[in-house]
Amino acid sequence: MSTMLSLPKNHLIIEWIRSHMPAAVFGTVHEKKQEDKAKMKHKNKIINLDRNSSRGWSAGRRLFRIIPVMAVMLILSASLFAVDDMPRWGVGLRISGFGVPNFLLDKFAYEHPTLSGYAASFEVRSYGVKGPRSAIGALFSLEYSNMSGKGFWRENEDNRQLDVEGGLSQVNLTATVLIGIFPGFVVHPYIGFGLGVGRAYIWSEGFHTDEDPDLAVKETYVKSLIVPVVHIPIGIMINISNKVEVRIEIGFKNGIYLGGGAVYNF
Question: Same domain for 150 and 169?
Answer without folding.
Answer: yes
